[in-house]
Amino acid sequence: MARSLALALTAAASLTLAAAAAPLAAADQGPGPGRAQGDRALTYAATARYQVHANAVADGYKPDQYCVVDKAGPGALGYPHFNHKYDNSLDPRKPAALFYEDDGRGGKRLVAVQWLLYDRDQKLTTDDDRPTMFGIPFKGPKPGNFPGQPVHYALHMWLWKKNPDGLFETFNRAVTCLPGTTRPKPAL
What we know:
two-stranded antiparallel ribbon; 7-stranded antiparallel beta sheet; 3 helices; 188 residues
């Protein structure tokens, strides 16, 4: 009951924030702070329903069975859920990926979203097509993370869990992967 009430209140707050910021986004067509704030409100409103994990899966976000850790230091991304029909989307309402963490009760809690755009020339050495959203340049170009994924740019946004290192950082040291939930290392 308390969880349902919390989700309903969060969704209502997100929708209120989106409604208040929508005129800002419509009036400000430039990349300034008004547009970024409006786009961020659109992302909150569009992804609020995905706090219920089943809604994300029903809408085509495919869960990965493994939690992704930062190999270079503390922190993680959580469990990625990709909807590849949103690859190459710069629409703040249509992130290509959602990231979840274990909620401690056997379920998943939404923590972040990600946009992914393919690099035009597929070269890691050029970046003349680097996209931006929210006034922030995407990171990359990066090699694919799995076989068949093209060279791409990515922008993470820790919309649903505070990241001590910043809203748009790739990994979040406040997210951890439970033992046994990460991808096994390949045998040598």
